Amino acid sequence: MRPGLPSILRAGLRRWFWRIFLFFTGGVTVEGKLPKGGCVVVANHSSHADTAALISALEARHAPRVAAASDYWFQNWPRRVVCSVLTAAFPVRRHGGGYTDLRTGAGPMLRAGHAVVLFPEGTRGDGRAGVFHRGPFKLADSLDVPVVPVALCGASELLPKGSKLNPRPIRVRIGTPMRGASADQARAEVLALTDAYQERDSRLRRRVAGIAVGRWGLALAAAWSFAEALSWPLLPELALAILCVAAPRAGLRLTVSAALASVVGGVVGLMLYAGTSVQLPQPLTTDRMHTAVQHELRAEGARAVRHQPASGIPYKVYTSEAGQTGIPVGDWALQSAVARGQRIVMLGLVLTLIGSVVQRWRRFYPHYLVLLAVAFTALFSWVISMWS
């Protein structure tokens, strides 16, 4: 038997909603398919992302329904509405009367051909499947439908229990349907599916991510940006392209750190050059760049720095010429925050989003760095030649 067309259409909308949502946190890949007709899906449970991953992975023709704890998801109307509309959930008590709820709620669904998703652990665990309760298997036997073991790999890292979102790909591994299986047999199959999963990642990416999420990452982004405003030839955006793509969960704070440090570096540079004979090294700049910036500053004052993102002239050239021209510190800080800070923030957030989306291809991170180096070198060479 197959669910009705309205149920299938609603399931299709839910599936694509969660597919699109999870695409921006690393994506979901699926291995295997459910059998035709009603079935009981049993999966490990360690994250609130588990249900979203399953809804996005299971085909709409199965019109999956999910059992949810009534004392948590149905205790107030906002949770009840979200749970019912976005996951097609139905309430099941966790403490007394749970099997009765399963029989009453899931029985008609299974007879109508729905896939009913149950988490036999009853609550979120630590990532590996814990002890399975007998209710789901007793229900499947009484209605003569198969039990399908499913392993959710990566969800516990995407949204750990008691923690916040950490972009990461999820793999849903659908096992072989089982009839007459016990709770222990199904749990063993879920564990086997989980243990057989090998995450494909780059050792280099992991090392860079380890730096990016810690204090050294913030220090590196800040020091790089500060130095670039004075003398360092490589743009802060290059550092963000390396760090934010490796560890998108640190992208926001890295971006803010880089933007603030760049503006502070510009102010310090302005003060160093103001009324002094200081001449810091400025590699990969040209006399024509300095001449163009001098004309802009005389014509527009501190507002001239707004041309920097489009002109390709390094920020340090604007900083040094602004100091020698006598631009007020306050005006310079404000205009730099608008121009330089805004650009760094926008690009940093874009790079963070890219890092989230490409999580499933993390093994290609070294290749990405090579392409980044080639693209940056080509772009920088073009800018230098244009201003030579």
Order of helices and strands: HEEHEHHEHEHEHEHHHHHHHHHH
Shape: elongated
Q: Quick one: biggest sheet? A: 7 strands, mixed
Mean pLDDT across every amino acid position: 92
Multimeric state of these chains? single chain
Q: Ranges with pLDDT <50 over ≥5 residues? A: none
Kindly report the spatial arrangement of strands forming the biggest sheet: 1-7-6-2-5-3-4
* Helix/strand class: alpha/beta
Number of strands: 7
Report, as a whole number of angstroms, the end-to-end distance.
74 Å
Domain Phospholipid/glycerol acyltransferase: 39-155
Pfam family, one: Acyltransferase
Protein name: Phospholipid/glycerol acyltransferase domain-containing protein
Transmembrane segments: 230-247, 254-274, 344-361, 368-387
